[in-house]
Amino acid sequence: MAPAETLRSQSMPVQARRRCLQRLGGLLLAGAGPGLMPSASQGATPATAGTPLPLFDAHIHYSHDAVERVPPAQAAALLRAAGLKGALVSSSDDEGTQRLLAEAPDLVVPELRPYRTRADMNTWVRDPAIVRYLEDRMARWRYVGIGEFHLFGADAELPVPRRMVALARERQYLLHAHSDVDAVNRLFAQWPDASVLWAHSGFEQPAAIREQLMRHPRLWCDLAYRNEHAGIHGVEPAWRELFAEFPDRFMVGTDTFTPERWHYIGPHATSARRWLASLPPGLAEPIAWRNAQSLLRARPPR
């Protein structure tokens, strides 16, 4: 979920909201806002002539309003047109994920959000009914993980999030966490062997991301709704150094948190291929698709 959506979460500590607002301002100035995505007409930089670099999008939502405006067949066509090898998909509620999975089982890797509607984003950490919702969905369907969920600071110690982590541990699910550093650390304290995908790389800068990756060997980062890592001359030096230091820990993502953003999947793929082309192939391919493939396809839905 993008920063503007995050700011609506009343469970986020004030300081975290302030930091997120500051980062959002920087993103918008850098041209990362939903209305400022690059257009497909700007061209692509393929891996080889006529062969676009494959991508695995690790941050796709297909919620109830997207299902209404972008029906499953059209949504699947947009994923294929972008040249995706796979997509980690969640939705509020879960019906969107199931419908898209039925339409494109070769592309969709399903995860379960602890949200019946978007309103749950603000209240789920204190709502015992969320546990029953998760248990019901997990009894009926198969997933590779739980997320993307919004969880900040000491809220990770509340009974509902702790039960969610316990459920994930029982099934060896991935945790896809839109969280601050404190909450990520608390998740690993509860489950040291967890696999955590850090949504948006926490909206942190390279130094803080590096510290977390060094601290937690089973932490991965998606780059959804970020663009400060890449400029007109390719990947920025601090990010290039970070990617080279941890080549197996990053993956691309779009974050279709509104129905309109489904139409940015193709342009986002074009933009991602452009900055990835500034990296050596041995580094670009893992970030583009190999890391997500290894993390997500290696764990069959259960």
Write the layout of secondary structure elements.
Layout: H1 3-6, H2 14-29, E1 55-61, H3 64-69, H4 72-81, E2 84-90, H5 95-103, E3 108-112, H6 120-123, H7 129-140, E4 145-151, H8 159-171, E5 174-179, H9 181-190, E6 196-198, H10 206-215, E7 219-222, E8 230-231, E9 234-235, H11 237-245, E10 250-251, H12 265-276, H13 281-297
Parallel strand pairs: 1-2, 2-3, 3-4, 4-5, 5-6, 6-7, 7-10
Antiparallel strand pairs: 8-9
Which characteristics define this entry?
302 residues, alpha/beta, TIM Barrel, eight-stranded parallel β-sheet
CATH topology: TIM Barrel
How much of the sequence lies in strands comes to 5-15%
Biggest beta sheet summary: 8 strands, parallel
For the secondary structure, the number of strands is 10
**Tally of alpha and pi helices:** 13
* Strand arrangement, major sheet: 1-2-3-4-5-6-7-10
CATH architecture tag:
Alpha-Beta Barrel
Pattern of helices and strands = HHEHHEHEHHEHEHEHEEEHEHH
How far apart are the first and last residues' alpha carbons, in Å? 24 Å
The average pLDDT score comes to 88
> Which class of secondary structure composition applies to the elements?
alpha/beta
The level 1 CATH classification is Alpha Beta
Question: CATH homologous superfamily - what is it?
Answer: Metal-dependent hydrolases
Low-confidence sequence ranges: 3-46
Radius of gyration: 18 Å
Number of domains: 1
Shape: globular
Please characterize this protein's 3D structure.
The protein is α/β, with parallel strands linked by helices. It has a single domain (3-29, 57-297), classed as Alpha-Beta Barrel (TIM Barrel). It has 13 helices and 10 strands. It has helices spanning 3-6, 14-29, 64-69, 72-81, 95-103, 120-123, 129-140, 159-171, 181-190, 206-215, 237-245, 265-276, 281-297; strands at residues 55-61, 84-90, 108-112, 145-151, 174-179, 196-198, 219-222, 230-231, 234-235, 250-251. It has an 8-stranded parallel sheet, with helices on both faces. It has a two-stranded antiparallel sheet with strand order 8-9. The model is unreliable at 3-46 (pLDDT under 50).
